[in-house]
Amino acid sequence: MIRRILKEVKEYKAASIATPLFMLLEVLMETLIPFLMASIIDEGVNAGNMKHIYRVGAWMVAAAAVGLFAGMAGGRYGAKASAGFARNLRGSMFHQIQTFSFANIDKFSTAGLVTRLTTDVTNVQNAYQMILRMFTRAPASMLCAMFMAFQINARLSTIYLVAVLLLGTVLFFIIRHATATFQQAFPKYDALNASVQENVSAIRVVKAYVREEEETGKFQRASENIYRIFVKAENNVIYNAPLMMFTVYTCILLLSWMGAKMIVSSELTTGELMSLLAYCMNILMSLMMLSMVFVMISMSMASIRRIAEVLDEESDLQNPMHPVKEVADGSIVFRNVDFTYHKDSAQPVLKNINLEIHSGETIGILGGTGSAKSSLVSLVSRLYDVTAGELLVGGRNVKEYDMEALRNQVAVVLQNNVLFSGTIYENLRWGDKHATEEECREVCRMACADEFIRKLPQGYETHIEQGGSNVSGGQRQRLCIARALLKKPKILILDDSTSAVDTATDSRIRRAFREEIPDTTKLIIAQRISSVQDADRIIVMEEGRIHGFGTHEELLAGNEIYREVYESQTSGGGDFDEREGE
Amino acid sequence: MPGPMRTVRGPKQQVKNPGKLLARLMKYVFRDYLFPCVLVFLCIFIGVIANVQGTLFTRNLIDDYITPFLLTDTPDFTPLARAIGRVAIFYGVGIVSTYLYNRIMVYVTQGTLRNLRNELFAHMEKLPIKYFDTHAHGDIMSIYTNDIDTLRQMISQSIPQIINSTFTIISVFFSMLFLNIPLTAVTLVMVAVMLVCTKMSAGRSGKYFVEQQINLGRVNGYIEEMMKGQKVVKVFCHEEETEEQFREWNDALFVSADRANTFANFLGPINAQLGNISYVICAMVGGVLALRHVGGFTLGGLASFLTFNKSFSMPINQVSQQFNAIVMAMAGAERIFRLLDEEPEADNGYVTLVHVREEDGELKESAQRTGRWAWKHTHQADGSVDYKELKGDVVFDGVDFGYTDEKMVLHDVKLFAEPGQKIAFVGSTGAGKTTITNLINRFYDIQDGKIRYDGINVNKIRKEDLRRSLGIVLQDTHLFTGTVRENIRFGKLDATEEEVVAAAKLANADGFIRRLPNGYETMLTGDGANLSQGQRQLLAIARAAIADPPVLILDEATSSIDTRTERIVQEGMDRLMKGRTTFVIAHRLSTVKNSDCIMVLEQGRIIERGTHAQLLEERGKYYQLYTGNAIA
After folding, report:
1. A102 partner at 20 to 30 Å CA-CA among A474, B187, B208, B434?
2. Is the ipTM value over 0.85, yes or no?
């Protein structure tokens, strides 16, 4: 898993290696300085040798300069390596997601993918920089200081060894305990935020029922809970600082006492004692730093896992070896097709579908929610693969086509359709990059969108906000239809794409289809019977099966579901703007 | 530590007045935690003093103990033992006070965050609907998550760190002065150099940091948009174009992130090494001074001074490390206070809704529920009180309305609804149907004209009471996390068990609720994500039914429900409408046909009105819509 994401370091490998090396150099210099310091005091000050002070002083300045250079270089390359790593991770994941099939996208969910690309990458970036800069620096600094300390006086330095072992063990347990409690606390925190989210989006309901105070009360109880949980979790961590101080102070006092005795018995010089005291901070601070690195790694493990999941996910749809680029015509044949979303689920979504649709036909599809209408049409442009049986488009199995070619000739207007931020022209040209303005207007006329676009202050240059939030639902649907028409597809699939369009406009759009693109096969899923009743033939779906297939008249005569729906929508129960047997 | 959930946010602006913000934030902390803050202050102070005492001991160790020991043949270690004992006590006090201040800070930080959250939420609930219309929900969310998070870091770490460092700097400064004045001057010069370098590096880092946030916002926004539209991207084979744009912005983010972090990383080594150089210079100058015994300066004095030298540059380094955290926290604080400063929904109403009973043909206010309600109208002039029974009589008189003053959405709307009548609105999307219903309960205030409820101008009615008298089933059904029962009870908090079931039955919801795994106790999460659209709508109807209001507003949106479910929902709605004044935004013929009055809206104007038969007779817009033969 870690190895998988480390592959993405790529061109920043050099920087990733350079960073710890420079940090090492910085550590060496930092360790050298107290050593030179001892020399200044012992051989310079005590011996009254000014020359020695100057000479060693110059060395120290040089060491500091090298340390400065190394530190800055380490910082420079650390930043580059981690920012670059993050860029590669983001880029690779984004690229990987582009190859995903609908099934892959469903598996991760939109929100899941967004978190992985944003928060998780940031977490890993921070952890990576920390590791590059500290993971070698901290142990190295500790080892160097320890080494120097032992060089000066091995007996006294055992104090450090003992201190490091003790402090290290205690820190380990504190951190392990703390991370566990924090990891328990975070989901509660998410729940609190979810309740804010809920209130923000349902504010009209809250206000309509005058429930502001009750909701505030509910929130405050949840917030009180969070307070308690986090106080408990944080109370584990606060031992760190005093514990560290305790260890440092104990070392200083022990060194002072034993050092004094040793100086008296000439086993140690005052300068050496000063150096030993200086190393104390180095050693224990490094240990503290190391423990922080471990916290960061363990905290970012979840992010690493989530990123690796995306990178390792294989698209379950592959292009064939010798793909066919051209769809011959708009005919569609389902032969004994079964379909399930998950390979291991026992209950198939579509069962034994057999259909023959001729090129240029208009087919209406009707059925209750969950009757698998959308699943049926999504197989045609190979958004999913059939589980059993075969599906032919233009006389060939859909698996033989190049996926891009197939999808360019089978246009789908999805149920949850999205516009992107950009002008209307830009949005339309998703259908055809090179479409002229005239072509764009032409398809908008067909989709009955031209009329409202012209009324917009900037017409076709109007900027659409993210998700199309500045146009109404019906307008959005018409734009989405126009966008699909621009592809000049052989097959056009509308998945409940006119639900927010009023019936009058809906019927004008259908008339335009009939008159202007007669050769295109049209599959129209709808709830309103008026949207499908003038189709050449109508499919009635019920629980994943085809319950009826025929013309309006045939179905009215022989299909009870169709008749029931028809009656409920027309005889006194239909849309107010329904054509009523006129 | 940051929470795992973070929402995507837009670019950050630079904070205008950080000093003022910080003062306001601190005022906020002190308001609830003055005493603990004073304690923390004291503890930090004690900790610093103890630490300085400990450092001074190093000088005494050499000058007062070790050097004299070297001069005698039989050194007596007892005074040294005593001194160490004394210092140990100092250290002990320092450790205890550090522990205490850390512990208190946990309560102060978490408590302040809790209070801020609560206040934010309570305030948010009071804001007018307009606020929610004009602010992206993601941005509002990010105040609760990201911005509160940055504050946690600042309150719990940055502020104590700064206080600690300030104390340390002051006390060390005086100790240094006490030890040797010329060396102190040398140290100060070096500190000045450090400060200049810090300012340069931090300034540049800050600039790129802001740039990085802008780029990050852009990349995250793009990611969110594209992930939401990923299926459309696939359907249109737009993968390459999408990736191209992403690559461009991702690269820009890399450049600014690289620079921001580089300069931030420079701070550490620059300060550390300048600190070392300062150390060296002091050692050399101090060595000369000690050798020549200038001003009685000793070797022990030099050792202590050098330790102080280090203690002096360290806090400066630490404060500079907090720089970015503070910049971020201030940006967060600004957004938090901006929400808290939003004007809450104004309510100048004084007419209230009370329970009444009738005695001798006169209405008397009652403390108990009587099933009858009246508007209590206290006249402002003479304080006399009027009661007017709640009937559900609604009149619009020449109402003009626009969400902004520049653009009117409704023009000269006139309508009246007598108690028990059903008024239907029809018209194409965007004609202003929903807007009209939003004016009755004063989600928005009108620009011109009058709306009267039982003859009272709605502006005079207390909003709370006005809304309580209106039942609403909205176009988008929103349910809350909680059980099914709790969701129905939302309409009437003190509803009995029987009332809940009765409401559910009326709404045709009882049947499916009983089939749920835990019946009425089934938990709903994520806006009722585990229910179908139709089931959610039925619950919303039950919720309105239990409130039993005299006036109903039904914004029925059934376009996404299949016909058979729709019929069940419709039955529930029909039962609910019986005997109430109902405003209905209708899509279905049955709902409209038997309305007492049908309003046809187009571009914010009522263009036709009348009963079904009358309107058909007119052969106008309604007729066109009705027959599906609209000729544009």
Report:
1. A474
2. no
